[in-house]
Amino acid sequence: MGKKGAKKTLKRKPAPSFWPIHKKEFVWAVKPKPGPHPTYRCIPLVLIVRDSLGLGNTSKEAKIIISKGKILVDGKVRREPSFPVGLMDVVSIPETNASFRVLPSTKGLILHRIPKEEEAFKLCRIEGKNIQKGGRIQLSLHDGRNILLKEVESGGSSYRTLDVLKINLPDQEPFELVKLEKGVPALAVGGKNAGKYGRIVEIEERLGLKRRRSLVTLEDSEGDRFQVILDYVFVLGEDTPLISLPGGIR
């Protein structure tokens, strides 16, 4: 009889390169549980506690900390060591009053320390939209959430894929919509320019080309321009970024 289902183990060599582990020190790595982020776009919670934050010397110590409910992700206690933590997730440690947001960088994902007031909200990009029975709109977000809006709109014209919602944590209630358009600050979350920040200068949408493959030109604070495809653009606000970024950008 053949094997059924996906493998439950993961070796260190094929693990994502941005994980904070040594590739050749040991054989096995922690495989993330199925959750809001895929393996290649997340960091297991136990690696964040042990390697990134240094709260434990071994995985056993890190698992004890997690099992005691001392680590919050997006305002909720997570007791699963292999829980996948990904882009824009907020990791909080109430005992030390420390909070971090997961942001992109040229090497993958990093933890960026944020002020206390920022742990109460999160930015989520709209990946899909459909209309449910009764005309209510359901939005599918980049972190696996599905939000059913209370208002009934004809066609849902105010919401478009790749726009960004600012939601409360842990209530998951959206209270601000940021449109993807020229002039707004945005972050590159993929490609060779991942982690770069700038304002959208131009969006080149071509007939016959999928919208997500459109070329977007951004300009940073020094006047340098770089390009990414629209699928790699994450809007941060209307005029100024709603979140703090590495380097003191706000």
Describe this structure in words.
This protein has helices spanning 45-52, 59-67; strands spanning 10-11, 28-29, 42-44, 72-73, 76-77, 84-86, 90-93, 98-105, 108-113, 121-131, 136-141, 146-152, 164-168, 174-178, 185-188, 197-204, 215-219, 225-229, 233-235. By secondary structure, the protein is mostly beta strands. It folds into three domains: 10-114, Structural Genomics Hypothetical 15.5 Kd Protein In mrcA-pckA Intergenic Region, Chain A; 120-178, Beta Barrel (OB fold (Dihydrolipoamide Acetyltransferase, E2P)); 185-235, SH3 type barrels. The protein has a five-stranded antiparallel beta sheet with strand order 5-4-7-8-9, with no helix packed on it. The protein has a five-stranded antiparallel beta sheet with strand order 12-11-10-13-14, with no helix packed on it. Strands 18-17-16-15-19 form a five-stranded antiparallel beta sheet, with no helix packed on it. A hairpin with a 4-residue loop joins strand 11 and strand 12 (146-152). Helix 1 crosses helix 2. The longest helix has 9 residues, at 59-67. 27% of the residues are buried.
